[in-house]
Structure prediction request, 620 residues.
Amino acid sequence: MTSLTLAAGPARRRRTAWVPTLVLVLGALYCLIPVVWVVMAATKSRAELFSTFTLAPGTGFLDNVHDLSRYRDGIYWQWMANSALYAGVGALLSTMVSAAGGYALGRFAFRGREFVFKLMLAGVLVPGIILSVPQYLMLSKMGLADTYWSMLLPSILSPYGVYLMRIYANAAVPGELLEAARMDGAGEWRIFSRIAVPMMVPGLITVFLFQFVGIWNNFLLPYVMLADDTKFPLTLGLYTLLAQGASQPALYTLVITGCLLAILPLIGLFLVIQRFWSLDLLSGSIKA
Amino acid sequence: MTTTPLEGSVRTSDGPSAGGTTEAARSPRTRGVRRGGRFAPYWFLLPTLALFAAFTAVPLGYSVWISLHKVEVQGAGLGSHAREEVWSGLGNYTAVFSDSLFGTSVVRALGYGVIVIPTMLGLALLFALMLDTPKVRSGPFARLAIFLPYAVPGILAAVMWGFLYVPDVSPFYFVLDKLDLPEPNLFDGTNLYLSLANIAVWGGTGFNMIVIYTALRAIPQEIYEAARIDGASDLKIALRIKIPIVAPSLVLTFFFSVIATLQVFTEPKALQAIENGIPKDWSPLLTIYNSAFGRADIYGASATAVVLAAATFLLSFTLLRISNRFTREDQA
Prediction:
């Protein structure tokens, strides 16, 4: 399996390695600058935003949240709910499809297996917009453009997810176990759902999280597909708010507050799963 | 972990040799096991293949088909009437190659990539090696902080940095102002490359760092012990042992970075919303988007998209060829 050598950590000695520590702290500061800035800027009132020192806290955070919630009858929270819907449902379906596909590619020998696998690899490489434009044209012919479907359907297939699940099924589900279950007379679907899926749980969570973050962060697809702003996800909603801000600078405080509130859920999710994410998950994806 | 409930079932069947009799004796189903098994993989692959056909293969084919056509009636929008599609052959393609907007945008993306990729992967490798150094302090905190940008959507990262580039609200300009130093325009000419590259480096370093770091942690510690006994310093171990071992991970991250570079779209789009002066067709994807939806020329846009896709494939397969010399992880 994809076990790690984490238990055997680096041998601790007494002296601190100052140069590596300094490098890491500088790197961490660089990565935190915009986050600290957005936290501070979100606390400033409109007047304070352009007048006070940028990294000093302001007095208007609650007012900003209130204004943002009131803007166009709370459309911001609609965007948040849309993002959660697209990312949650999309990632769930994507994980199920990837699990079945990856399991088939990883645990069966059949005609066309290599071909399908190469298709998936090729699928990883196709640039988003090259698909987005024809996808838009096709969905609009079916009357599905600018609907929730136009966001959900193209997000389900994840060639990378299938690829990951293939590796994971191969590593985590012993072939002998499947043979044994077959000899006991279990059907293939039963073997998959009762035996393989439970063993693939860490890999499934990996794919779910990748897809969730990927869909939540996606900008291009909604930008191409959606016109009605009540269906926008957060990324597109905040972008349109920003674009309007060019003529109405008063909206900038709303954009900044909206940015902060938009990244908090993902940072929260990320902190909760961080330990698991950074270790088991990525190693599962890289090491076969 | 999750395997515990299953160990029992392994024991009950106890070896494949006993299978012949137990199968007949225990099978509660009348359906032939072997026959069901033969078609099973196709059933499991059905959703994947159906979605691949519907949302990848058919759109790609459709794109190629459109790219070989043009519309007769001039001035028509995206509406389906009042225009006629006629065969145009390679006309759109010759137009792509003589289109200076597209050419310029490709050159821009390449220049941007030349800044982003070495910086991002260099930093990722550096941080990963630092994290993997013995006696280092605040490693977990730094790892978390550097990976954090991965959770921030690209468009929001660009918005946040975009504000940091605006003199009125940026702490950098505040410092420059106090020190009486020159205040560069970060949305201008060459600086724009650096501004955009910075956003990409900020967003991507952590993820690549984790990929490389994970590969480093998989190296058995005994190798280092042996090297230390032979008198190797930490630096020497890093250069001579660690970097060669994580080379496959570096190739992988490089590969994905190149593809991401060719697809840059979100960041320039966001900066355009802050600063009007940025060219509308800054990157190849922006050119394609603008010709498809801005100028309603889906034919030219499709031809451009096909050219870009072909270039991406060509580049990817070349890189895969090279990387296959390093890695042999394909068949597990």
Notes: The CA atoms of residues 105 and 166 of chain A lie 6 Å apart.
